Amino acid sequence: MGALVARWLARAGTQHLVLTCPGRRAETDRAEGDGPLVAELRELGAGAVTVAPCDLTDPESVRALLSGVPESLPLSAVFHTAEADTWAPMAELTPEALAEGMSVRVTGARLLDELTRSVGHSGDDDARGLDAFVVFSSVAGVWGAAGQGAHAAAVASVDAVAQARRAAGERATSIAWGLWAEAPIGVRDAAAEGERRLQLERRGLTGLATEAALAALQQALDHEETNVVVADVDWARFAPLFTASRPSPLLADLPEVAAALAPDDESEDVDGGGDGSAWSARLAGLSAEERRSAVLDVVRAAAAAVLGHEGAESVEASRPFKELGFDSLAAMSLRNQLNTTTGLRLPATLVFDHPTPAAVAELVLAELDAASAPERTGERAVAGDAGRPASGAGPERVGGPLTSASDPSYASDDLGTAEVASAVEGFTDDELFAFIEDRLGTFEAPTTDHNSARGSA
After folding, report:
1. CB 91 within 8 A of CB 117
2. DSSP secondary structure string for all residues of 437-457
3. CA-based Rg of the chain, rounded to a whole angstrom?
4. d(Cα 242, Cα 145) in Å, to the nearest integer?
5. Could you read off the pLDDT of 217-229 as tens digits, one per residue?
6. How far apart are CA 69 and CA 76, in angstroms?
7. For the chain, how long is the longest CA-to-CA vector?
8. What is the C-alpha to C-alpha distance for residues 223 and 61, in angstroms, rounded to an integer?
9. For the segment 76-110, what is each residue's pLDDT rounded down to a tens digit?
10. What is the pTM of this model?
11. CA-CA distance, 424 to 355, in Å (whole number)?
């Protein structure tokens, strides 16, 4: 990103560009005639180009860098684009890795801020110092990113540096970037780079074109923004995944997010497009235990496919999805696959509300039972007054769904969980409390021998 910004500044005719890099690399570049980038920058229109060795974590090294700027071409702007390879799950993050991830980006930003506060003031309290002080941040510090805990902490600290500098009356801009099309994302291995890019794109973060990114940078400077997010986001993909486990006040007011989350605008990717009738028909002829086993096998097989494993046997029924390696994208993929297979419309929060394959299988069974209840109703229910089932007919209704807490059908213990959940959504507070009191009153509290319990504790 630093090289891309340097080219942009060169094309703008910057009189003097100072590029910082570790000392050993600067020596190599000098031995090779300053390297191809320096020659390219001069050809693009830069006046002078200097490659300066600097350790951005060392105050003395930064002071030496700034003191080396010639008085004839004084310092007018700082662009801090340095970053570190900090990809690691939080559970695997060591103190050393966290310190490495914070060092260059955060310490460098703080030192550059501190040591340039007096630049350009010349004793005039009303002067505004540098024309620009820009630090590169990341969306990881705004809405988070899997495997980037250290990176998120670092860029949040960088954002704070810009805010503090602006509060002190200096110019400062921190840009939280999304993915850039032409810049690497911080992994050293080419295969891992490609895989991470693919993951990000599947989540809805596509690469910013360099021209668009630099135009946004110029706009942020023109408007003297302090903190701004610049990212190319496919909200139809990103928003459902990001809000799968909880709503997001951060994004809720964006029109594109509201459209992506509208309940009546679900795409085929959400429900999978399957009716599940053939599969349901096969289940119908099985015993209760066989049905449970068959549904669990389908859930485990779908989870294995999402994770890239070969078969259902690789997924333990009682192991939490988080331990299996599920993230929000995998959770949504599993839900979509199960919707396609079963013909159900399982919730986006499926994996978060039902954290194991066994729990998901139980939900699928309950939903299938609830979906088939109308068919059983026509076979067994006996109509009574006002469309209610006659005494002993069970919870199924002839005249429609259960709609009131006073409905005697609620007295049955055979009432399906899904049917109750659906009905109570429309209860008033009084109806809901009456329903809870009535149903809880049907359970007998277990008697406990407290003395015996104490003795065995």
Report:
1. no
2. HHHHTTSPPPP--HHHHHHH-
3. 31
4. 10
5. 999 999 999 999 9
6. 10
7. 99
8. 32
9. 999 999 876 667 777 788 888 888 878 889 999 99
10. 0.65
11. 24
